[in-house]
Specification:
It contains 18 helices and 15 strands. By secondary structure, it is α/β, with parallel strands linked by helices. Among the domains are: about 190 residues, Rossmann fold, CATH 3.40.50.10490; about 30 residues, no CATH class. The strands form 4 sheets. Strands 1-2-15-12-10-11 form a 6-stranded mixed beta sheet, sandwiched between helices. A hairpin with a 5-residue loop joins β1 and β2. Bound molecules: 6-O-phosphono-alpha-D-glucopyranose.
Length: about 525
């Protein structure tokens, strides 16, 4: 029997609060520190490892976290989710994104169809379509090959697919699987669509309209923008556009598209990178095999999330440590710092994934919670961030837990030896140095140059960022966020907080305003 209790009602949470906090600078110093770095590591899928040596935990805290995981029934709740229970209570929906990459438990039949079969069918349809585009069997109106794919979408229909595309672009070029360049239009700012359209050859571009709901104002506006551009170029828009949407959306039955591929309401936008939402653009850009490898990596990581032992379940452990940092140690935010230029938009994707999922003040029954929930997430790739906001991270008044990601090898492999080291070695040296600099102290008589240490971080280390390791990395964060939602007893799968702004914007556009809204409308010349 599963019981959904608030975090502060759990005995193990009260016990966790009583544990003595770990002096990170002390435990990371000397040989003890070296041992910690060796031991505090959990293998992930696809050669990745989650290292938490520089977190403020010790065996006592870890034992308390293990009890918390048990009492909060994290494994049981995950099981309920992938077996098709209505875990998204707010919207009364199942939560099935794991099923786009495998089947962890029972067959789930919803709306009269087996859901795994449905997702696999969509993947197959996309693969066939992409192969035909690459082979020149599906062409533009003049019978010429498409050379560019442009995705139109926003939020989950943009951030994940865009981050994944950027993560694999150079890898695909290096490994001869690069098929087409991809571009993305998301913002309703007309300069976004105009600039992208100016940068592509529209006559040889295929546009992927992605909207799960089929009603998002920005996306529909950008669709019209693109259709106008196609018309102005004397082209038939329906020969240049495909759609990815849910079967119940207004776009599903339209004749305006060359083809339509489907996801459904059981996959939240921010969890949709492994569905047709990511599948169409990534299969067109890199080929369906690359997308399949990405899915396999995610599926392999999902399997690790089933483990009851927190030391063998990197997602659960990461989630528990995050809740400890947020609720017991009181840290307000988390920085995501990938030492990989290919992951330049990964922090932006995690912003949505984490903050839209767990930025909630009421529990899953709609009752206010008496504790803090999701942290503010932000980040940039290293080493760039070091020359930007790390000052605050090192010496600011808030302690910000850090999530580093690093790879031993670059994707392209072109490198240079300057002062006895390669650029890749310099990149990796920096991330190692930062972990220790944050954790350990360096005393200086000049207070301005003093480092107090005790600033926690973890790092995910991999061999190389590949389709499979990217899939594992993505699934890690998706599952971590899911476990945290279970711990906070919030519904991580709805996003009512985005509605009010949309309603008011519509009112502004209809000139139905008064008070402050009217004056702001005037100031902005609407
Ligand atoms: O895919 P769509 O239905 O167009 O939705 C796009 C995005 O818009 C919404 O406002 C939500 O906050 C996001 O969760 C969603 O991903």
């Amino acid at each position: 029997m599963i019981t959904w209790n608030n975090l502060d009602k759990l005995t193990s949470y009260q016990e966790l609060k009583k544990t003595e906090s770990v002096d990170l600078a002390a435990v990371m110093a000397g040989e003890n520190g070296a041992e910690r770095v060796k031991n505090y590591s959990v293998p992930m899928a696809e050669g990745l490892a989650y290292n938490y040596a520089a977190k403020k935990v010790d065996d006592t805290v870890l034992a308390a976290l293990e009890k918390l995981a048990e009492e909060a029934q994290l494994t049981e709740k995950f099981e309920a989710l992938y077996n098709g229970e209505v875990v998204n209570t707010g919207e009364k929906r199942l939560v099935l994104h794991h099923m786009t990459r495998g089947q962890l438990g029972d067959a789930v039949v919803a709306d009269g169809v087996d859901k795994r079969t449905f997702y696999v069918e969509q993947q197959k349809k996309i693969a066939e379509f992409a192969n035909k585009v690459h082979a020149g069997e599906i062409t533009n109106g003049a019978g010429e090959k498409f050379t560019t794919v442009v995705q139109i979408g926003i939020g989950g229909s943009d951030l994940g697919p865009r981050a994944m595309y950027l993560a694999l672009e150079n890898w695909a070029k290096k490994n001869d699987t690069f098929k087409m360049e991809a571009k993305f239009i998301s913002n309703v700012d007309p300069d976004d669509a105009a600039a992208v359209l100016n940068s592509v050859d529209v006559a040889h571009s295929i546009f992927v309209l992605v909207s799960k709901s089929g009603t998002t104002l920005e996306t529909l506006t950008n669709e019209s923008f693109v259709k106008d551009a196609l018309k102005n170029a004397g082209l038939d828009a329906s020969k240049h556009m495909i759609a990815v949407t849910s079967e119940t959306s207004p776009l599903a039955k339209s004749d305006d598209y060359l083809a339509a591929f489907f996801m459904d309401d059981y996959i939240g936008g921010r969890f949709s990178s492994t569905s047709a939402v990511g599948g169409a653009v990534l299969s067109l850009a890199f080929g369906p095999e690359v997308f399949a490898q990405f899915l396999d990596g995610a599926a392999a990581e999902d399997k690790l999330s089933l483990n009851k032992n927190i030391k063998e379940n990197p997602e659960m452990l990461d989630a528990l440590i995050g809740v400890y940092e947020r609720n017991v140690l009181g840290y307000p935010s988390t920085a995501v710092l990938p030492y990989s230029q290919a992951l330049s938009r990964f922090p932006a994707h995690l912003q949505q994934l984490d903050m839209e999922s767990n930025g909630k003040s009421v529990n899953r029954f709609g009752e206010p919670v008496d504790y803090v929930t999701g942290p503010v997430i932000f980040g940039e790739p290293g080493t760039n961030g070091q020359h930007s906001f790390y000052q605050l991270l090192h010496q600011g008044t808030d302690i910000v837990p850090l999530q580093f990601v690093g790879f031993k090898n670059s994707q392209i492999g072109t490198d240079v030896v300057i002062q006895d080291s390669t650029s890749q070695q310099k990149l990796c040296a920096n991330v190692a140095a930062q972990i220790v600099a944050f954790a350990c102290c360096k005393e200086d008589e000049n207070r301005n140059k003093n480092f107090e240490g005790g600033r926690p971080s973890s790092i995910i280390i991999g061999e190389q960022l590949t389709p499979a390791s990217l899939g594992a990395l993505l699934a890690h964060f998706e599952n971590k966020i899911m476990f945290q939602g279970f711990l906070w007893n919030v519904n991580s799968f709805d996003q009512e907080g985005v509605q009010l702004g949309k309603v008011l914007a519509k009112r502004v556009l209809a000139h139905e305003t008064d008070g402050a809204l009217r004056v702001f409308s005037d100031l902005l010349n609407i």
